[in-house]
Amino acid sequence: MGRGSQEVREVEDNAGAKNDEVKGPLVRRRKPAENEVAQPPDGGWGWLVVAASFLCNMVLDGIAYSYGVLLNPLTEHYGVGKGMVSLVGSILAGVIMMVGPIASYLVNKFGTRYVCMTGALISSLAIFISTYSPDIKTLMVVYGIIGGLGLGLMYVPAVVAVGYWFEKKRSLVTGISTCGSGAGTIVFAPLAAGLEKALGWQGCNRVLAGLCLLCTLFGATMKPVPKRKPDEEDSIIELKNMDKDNQAGPYDGEDIAFIDGQGEKGGEEAQQEGGGDAAPTEPQENKKSDVRILLGNPAFLMIMFANLPAVMGLYIPYMFLPSMSQERGLTVDEGAILISLIGAFNTAGRVISGAVTDHPKVDALLMTAFALFFGSLCPISMDMCGDFASYIVVSILFGLTLSAWPAVTSSMLVDLLGLELLTSAFGLLTCIRGVSAFLGPPLGGFVIDVTGGNFSYAFWISTGLLGTSALLHFVAFLLKRRIQSRAAQR
């Protein structure tokens, strides 16, 4: 028997005088339930999972966000317009997100480790093979659809895996792991520009395919949270159950609290210190339909609608800022630096916003609304820039203001829906974002083509879309408060 059983027997000897009728073995080992839960350890191996998630996000988002660097080389190679070439990058970004529900289902069934490793293999092969595409349509299928499928299977595990290892620091570690997106933008934009100069766009993508293959090692670290050992905790649980059944039993509340390691603390206080939500050791298939539960929540529905214009507006500057800056006198390297600056300050902002959102008085949904509002002012400001210094300032503000949006998504969903629906909710939300990613850059690209190469309209559209999303997130926040107020009255 374990240590917990020995402690129970010591208390049994001391408390025998209280009730002589208690006989037989006190401790009965329970069989672990199929959907056993484990308390997030808030550390340990979880930090390695955070690092692996960071690196996976860096690679997959670095590839997606740096695609704009290859816009001109691909246009020249295939002899098509910017709208058609930008559609390839939009398909990639859209499929990454649209496979969210599929990835969520696979994570629920097989776990984060195997899904992430499979996605890394698929994306590596697809991006490598796409370098031999004879025309733009083949590039769309191989690079955009199949490559996006692989990266999408990496994306969901990379984001949700850390949520099952941390509770008290969930917003902070989610912010750290999603900082990989900003780090990828910092690293991959100049990397892609340098590789394209030295090796051409084909050689550039072959190197990126090798980095995707490296993510199989990162995915291998995403093991499930270990289940508790029965001989360590089952005796205490059994004792509590017996005490509930027999209120006049041999053990009073103080004895049970002492056995449970709570000392003189009350149950509520101990539960708060231990954490209110129990994270599944590995997500399990739910008997009830998660989708029906999610679609029945008005606040979540509003968040879904709000993400449609948000992603459309977000991708337009990433796609067209390098080309617009070059048209207005900046060099190719300076255009790549602007994307890197967005990524650098987006990375720093995610850590800060994640730490701030962990404060109990800060609402993650309200934080998202404010981030989108201030971020919406940046695209139209980019159109007003006249020199490299002004582009630097606005790029920094764009990366910083929008950093909270992805950093606090997991915490926002847990606050609204609970930890048990995190994977399904995140998968559904990324699907909506994927639909939006299909539309944003092509819309901007076709507007640019129709207006004779005028980039201004595309950036004005971006501002309008981000502003609309901010307003819808404010409405979602009000709906959430209304739902909570009704629940409190009951």
Descriptive keywords:
mainly alpha, 2 strands
The chain-level mean pLDDT equals 76
Tally of strands: 2
From the N-terminal CA to the C-terminal CA, the straight-line distance is 45 Å
Sheet/helix structural class: mainly alpha
The best one-word shape is: globular
Strand order of the largest sheet: 1-2
Number of helices: 21
Beta content comes to under 5%
Helix-strand pattern, N to C?
HEHHHHHHHHHHEHHHHHHHHHH
Give a short synopsis of this structure.
The protein is mainly alpha-helical. The chain contains 21 helices and two strands. The radius of gyration is 26 Å and the shape is globular.
What do these coordinates show?
The chain has 490 residues and is an all-alpha fold. The chain is 74% helix and 1% strand. The protein contains 21 helices and two strands. The protein has helices at 3-14, 45-65, 71-78, 82-98, 100-110, 112-130, 136-160, 170-219, 230-245, 253-259, 267-274, 290-295, 298-327, 332-357, 364-375, 377-383, 388-401, 404-407, 409-417, 422-450, 456-489; strands at residues 37-38, 279-280. It has a two-stranded antiparallel sheet with strand order 1-2. Helix 6 (112-130) runs antiparallel to helix 7 (136-160) and helix 7 (136-160) crosses helix 8 (170-219). The protein is globular, with a radius of gyration of 26 Å.
